[in-house]
Hints:
Helix content: 10-25%
Number of helices: 6
CATH architecture of the largest domain: Beta Barrel
Structural class: mainly beta
Distance between the termini: 120 Å
CATH class of the largest domain: Mainly Beta
Strand order of the largest sheet: 21-25-22-24-23-26
Low-confidence stretches: 1-17
Shape: rod-shaped
Amino acid sequence: MNIFRWLVLALFLSACQSTSLLSITIIDGETTRLVSSIQRTPLLILTEAGIPPQTADRVFINGIPFALDENITINSPVQLQLRRAVVLTLVTPESGQTLQTSALTVGQALTEAGYSLHVHDKIDPPTETAITDSMTVTYLPARDLVITTGSNVINIRSSAGTVGAALAEAGIPLIGLDTSSPLENEALPADGQIRVTRVYESISTTIVPIPFDEEVVESVDVAFGQDEILQPGVSGLAMIRTRIRYENGIEVSRAAEDETVLREPQNQIVANGTKIVLAAAGGEIPYEYWYATEMYASWYSPCNSGTGGCSYGTASGAPAGFGIVAVDYSIYSYLAGMKVYIPGYGVATIGDTGGGPIIETAFGVPRTKWIDLGYNDNAIGGLSGWVTVYFLAPAPVEIPYFLK
């Protein structure tokens, strides 16, 4: 209701007023005036006193809030306090605006301006602060938020400026490695959804062996073909630290951080014998040998050599037949002319070459481990399979590399 309409109403009311005088003390800010009037409404009293109120002003009769057009029914002396409206600047997340208010406190001004206040709203200065002229009030209304942590869901209202502050208000602060979405330093999300991930890490330690290496040395004190451990190998020990990460109680990753050697491994030193030692081969004649090894034996004769006919020639020039054995051509030059003893066959001379690759392909036998036993056509023994081959004395000056 504007002042003009108030005055019209006041004139109407004045016609109905009592003619008795009312003693009134008017307090207008720092000014106090004592007047007498037959008027009974604050609006007419103030207008008659030359202090017309504005629309947003308010009055108190004997300390009690009173409407400007409300009739005063008491006859005793009256104290009429006029509270002038002042300009209040209100800042909200949406905008800023100015209000004309004669409210006593910030909270009263906001309520009268149509704002529904909530306990979690952020108001600066606080609601109980007295209103002064040219005051600025910041109002941040609380919002509904849904906080999810694993399978737990919490609904809160908050006016916090950041996600981290809202979580702290809800008693769900981020601790240590915990994370949130949105991040804790970001503003509250438009959809009100905040997801918290509880993160913790543990360190697992494991002791693992470190294999030792083998070092082979030649020794003239060890018989050829034999090995002797000079220094036993000792495995080392290492401690591996593994960092395990859990999110909401579920393992999501593990990574080896470092390895600490607790004990260095000790190499095993093996002596490979180079000393030629003659020994008895046994059998009917005590042949002396300097080396013995397992070889895969096959047999052939002049007319059973796989050539499609009879062939009596050999790589050494000796006639093919019993007592002449063949080896693969790749090692023949190292063994040509050497005497060997084969139990079940007898003494023979390495004097021919054969098809070691065929045996290697057919039986998976290395060509250096194959020997072909010669027989006469009229006396074929047919010994085959794995046999022990004794290399008879004298030993060569240079031991073939494939026998070492």
